[in-house]
Amino acid sequence: MAKRTPAGTPTDVTQGSRTKGGIGESTLRPDGTLKVTGEFAYSSDMWHEDMLWGHTLRSTVAHAEIRSIDTAEALATPGVHAILTYDDLPTEVKRYGLEFQDTPVLAHGKVRHHGEPVAIVAADHPETARRAAAKIRVDYADLPVVTDEASATAEGAPLVHENRDDHHAGHVPHPNIVHRQPIVRGVAAEAAKRADVIVSGEYVFGMQDQAFLGPESGLAVPGEDGGVDLYVATQWLHSDLRQIAPVLGLPEDKVRMTLSGVGGAFGGREDLSMQIHACLLALRTGKPVKIVYNRFESFFGHVHRHPAKLWYEHGATKDGKLTHLKCRIVLDGGAYASASPAVVGNASSLSVGPYVVEDVDIEALALYTNNPPCGAMRGFGAVQACFAYEAQMDKLAAKLGLDPVEFRRLNAMEQGTLLPTGQRVDSPAPVAELLRRVKARPLPPEQQWLTAGEAADVRALPGGLSNTTHGEGVVRGVGYAVGIKNVGFSEGFDDYSTARVRMEVVGGEPVATVHTAMAEVGQGGVTVHAQIARTELGVAQVTIQPADTRVGSAGSTSASRQTYVTGGAVKNTCEHVRERVLEIGRAKFGTYHPAWATAELLLESGKVVTDGGEVLADLADVLEGESVDLELEWRHRPTQAFDLRTGQGNGHVQYSFAAHRAVVEVDTELGLVKVIELAVAQDVGKALNPLSVLGQIQGGTTQGLGVAVMEEIIVDPKTAKVRNPSFTDYLIPTILDTPTIPVDVLELADENAPYGLRGIGEAPTLSSTPAVLAAIRNATGLELNRTPVRPEHLTGT
Fold this sequence. Notes:
It comes from Streptomyces niveus (Streptomyces spheroides). By secondary structure, the chain is of the alpha+beta class. It is about 25% helix and about 25% strand.
């Protein structure tokens, strides 16, 4: 044990004695080594003695009446313990949902999309459960499918949901519109008359999957008290709890939830998947039940990014100033609402981009269709808008004969800018500087294979290891883009988090224990929480307890909010714990030194010190025989709902910005694209863990690259059935597809945020996609108004 200063004896703090592992350092992730060595326990690895396996029977059609369900043959299968359909649900609560409850636990009367759950099976082996499910006979009568805006809003169109009673139903122009949000400021039609140049375009954004590698999975264990313990990979434990308990007919304190290892999320785990099904089967059989989706089922088991059609018109004066914006954004929400209303709010309020435009006429809406349900995904409505408005910026710059970066900088917002919603940007908005930095970065060498000789690496060519290109017809292109993303939940949502912190002496050393319900989905929150506790409490040893519902809600791990909100909660609780510790110290040792009463006191390196560096006591002595244990909630500044007619309101708490420069080489004969470099500049406010910041920025950039050139769920427009539910046919970037991603980090503090930080996880996903598209346009001269770009779009075949 380290030598301690005798209690109450003042000494000087030696240089560099600040507690190590605090904020601003790249401390190692506690789960990092386990993950890269394959030893980390994910939810799909859980096991319980005598457990059963669950399986879900899903609809094979997208829209049909259910005439009958026959489970007799399946129930007779040896090893089957239970089969449940809608009629077997235990309570009158048979639906759930994030914002309003429109999603049936199991289909009743009809199915509304391909892959909808119809029945669930519990058996003693996963293959037995799968085979039994295949024996269930469902008699379907096909109904007409609604697949786009025309079929959804046509006269006499089939209603995806009859008799809507949700809080959006009264203000939408058609029952097949989930939510509509206009934003009107100034008079766009009049402002258009001042424009010397007007450009317009129609853009199509494909349906992207979150493509997390860890499939949906969990384990439900029935309790002796009639309750259930659920171990699950999710993004928001308390939201799950709020939806699960009523369906089971249990009070929330009898549904005990614990986060298990999460293999990625990106928004796809905000909605329920197997949670209710596993609990129902466990309570029915009296045995633990484990459910693990395979990859095929995972494509149907979670929501996706909204595909979108976007129409934009911009005007500008001959000297390059934007005059107005008119735009219409139509998002396909699929069969159930999920997070569509909030995605609409984001798409509309961020549709202008990080630019100053005083006169706007904006409309965004989400449809109910029979396509797969869509909801939260990294970027949340801002991604689709960024793709369109950045294409427009390039069109305007070209028509005006201006450099595309300088044109953007000329119109860039800054701190103090009034947004189209009437909200003023009250923290740094270094849009022009981010663009300057990515443009100033040296370009990578062109066509490197030409000078490499025999050492030339085929992987550097378009087509890569397929060995289809040998340099003929390869053209370089460079493109730029910048985006704006909100941070945290918006539009008046009560966005808060809870943290419990305990401080005590263990083994002669002061130890802090932090307990939150934050879902660690790979973002590194558990690392940052420990760093915050070390910084605020001056202890080296910090224990992070597993996330569960024994502590208050931490909100969702989404919207780039967890470091801001749950980090803020940990910081706030630690500050209160620190004050209690100092009160104990004053009571014990206050007579030893007047500084206990007069100086500003800090906790550093396991000691109580003055702001001048004088040590007053060891924390181990202060806390001997004592402990401090507090659980507190923390909220960011309140936001407001957008006006339903004008879209005015202070809807967002914070904004984040990132800019990209993409360098591509394109084989124009074969339509193959190689992204050589994706340079990024992003303002992060304060990098609490610089290495984790780089990981988030590079990861978000790669996800944006995927939707630019390869990722899209293909839905048959006639049947609304998914054509490619596998990683064989749904392609995501691998390490061979991922270019060099140099990152330039700015740290311009937001004085309203804990430590001045800014949420960072989503902003790089916005601008990487349009930057890649801009580079391909630059190389080919083609307009390219949809994502992803495929070879046939480049060759015209």
